[in-house]
Amino acid sequence: MNFSSDNVSPVCPEILAAIAAQSEKSALPYGQDDDSAQLDAAFSNLFETECCVIPVATGTAANLIGLSGLVSPYGGVVCHHEAHINQTESTGVAFYGGGAKLLTMDGPSAKIEAGELDAFLTAHRNRPVHAVEAECVAITQATEFGAVYSVAEIQDIGQVAKEHDMRLFMDGARFANAVAALNCHPADITWKAGVDVLSFGATKNGALAVDAIVLFDKTLRKQAEKARKRGGHLFSKHRYLAVQLLAYLENDLWLKNARHANMAAKLLAQSLGSLGARVAHPPQGNELFMWIEDDLAATLRAAGIIFRPWPAVGKGAYRFVTAWNSPLEDIAALPQNL
User: Fold this and answer.
1) C-beta of residue 187 within 8 angstroms of C-beta of residue 152
2) Helices (H), the chain
3) Average pLDDT score over the chain
4) In terms of pTM, does the model score above 0.85?
5) What is the CA radius of gyration of the chain?
6) Which domains does the chain have, with CATH numbers?
């Protein structure tokens, strides 16, 4: 079993079928096709508010293009030190933002806390010309350590951002897993809580290659589309991105897949715990961080279990990530099968 990440999983059948069906016909390029025209309405229906949707092929592109309209070239984006945009997306924020800088802060389980954020923003506003002022806040839902912001926590962060006259961005590479864990309406942790832009992940949850930039402020669309084109992310065969997203939303496939992945993570935590592993961060979504002794790690690897050390958590910590197709019965039977 491969738990190195959720992007090692195959494309789920429903999305693969949508791609195959699209290959039986021709269509206009660059988003002028009929399927691409349905995206705004489909996502507006999902979030119960009018929004604009710009599909791209990678989560990094969704984050960087989405953020680019929220910060000036000389401004700062406040994020957690462990944020994907800080640790794993090179200098992309500066590239797409024309020089924008990341201003990092800490917090438990890779979360930003509202009270600490308020103090941080106060210290980074009205600064002299020599310094970088904060202009935007970025959070990740679920976080890089597998934690999920509650509805109230996001509302509090949104209120702090509003009080400081700042935009709020959400990296939602595993947004589906967070919604499944909270059992809430997706609107409750996005636009209703003050989120201006969301990167809505699909690639990690059954899609081939597509994430959506969801703009709850529709005035941002023109700038985001120009940034997408300039950065080389406007697909000529745009319809193949669109049909993945439409299939992903149909019959709540996005939630079905995420619920399966979340359940798999809980089962895996139980199985590993029975073998002597200890939880480093309680699993809320589909990422699991465990403290594992060397002997057990070697036994798991010998049995063909693939996982990764995670030094950001600490020495002896490992990350396991489950997916929409993780085999629940095999995970439950892991202690007996070693």
Assistant:
1) no
2) 13-22, 39-47, 59-68, 84-87, 92-96, 114-123, 151-163, 175-182, 221-230, 239-249, 253-274, 294-302, 328-332, 334-337
3) 96
4) yes
5) 20
6) 12-251 (3.40.640.10), 254-337 (3.90.1150.10)
